[in-house]
Specification:
By secondary structure, this protein is mainly α. The protein is about 80% helix and about 0% strand. α1 (about 5-20) runs parallel beside α4, α5 runs antiparallel to α6 (about 95-120) and α6 (about 95-120) packs across α7.
């Protein structure tokens, strides 16, 4: 990592991801998707995809693991969200971050609920079962989408504000000298 600030940001966001999954919260209202987008947009590339996966894995070690095929789809969904963040990084604007977060949430919803249908036992393995899987997941999708948007606004807002003031302070100190 380039500097101590990168290490600090990674540790704080990792702690946020793990603790938010462990503390009581509404179903699917967790920051992992936002961490994936945030990591892709703001963190060093080699860390970007590891951040959300590390937060998931550490918290899964405590919460418990479940159906491996479904878990892989969840982790894959977060990898895709991180990749979306890496694409946004090239032309970083608030509208692209919000749009990318929404796109990532939708892709995550589609992948994970297809996996629940395909590898789980809750739904018939036909078109009606797939549709039922998606319909039953809508309340969880709303929470995921709102959580992703809420947390990305907070994470990006804090990062952008901190960067702005750090640059401003640096410029002022150069003028004084």
């Amino acid at each position: 990592m380039k500097n101590k600030n990168d290490i600090f940001i990674v540790l704080i966001t990792l702690a946020l991801g793990v603790s938010a999954r462990l503390l009581p919260h509404p179903a699917n209202f967790a920051p992992i998707g936002a961490l994936a987008i945030f990591g892709g947009v703001y963190l060093p590339k080699r860390i970007a995809l590891l951040l959300p996966l590390s937060a998931m894995f550490l918290s899964d070690m405590i919460i418990g693991f479940y159906n491996p095929a479904i878990m892989i789809s969840v982790y894959l969904g977060f990898i895709i969200m991180g990749l979306i963040g890496l694409i946004i990084r090239k032309k970083r604007r608030l509208s692209r971050i919000i749009g990318g977060t929404m796109l990532g949430s939708i892709i995550f919803f589609l992948i994970t609920n297809a996996a629940v249908w395909l590898f789980g036992t809750m739904y018939a393995h036909n078109l009606n079962g797939l549709v039922q899987s998606y319909v039953m997941a809508i309340p969880f999708f709303k929470n995921s989408l709102f959580a992703d948007l809420f947390y990305i606004c907070i994470l990006a807002g804090i990062y952008e504000t901190g960067t702005y003031y750090a640059k401003k302070t640096s410029l002022l100190s150069k003028e004084i000298v």
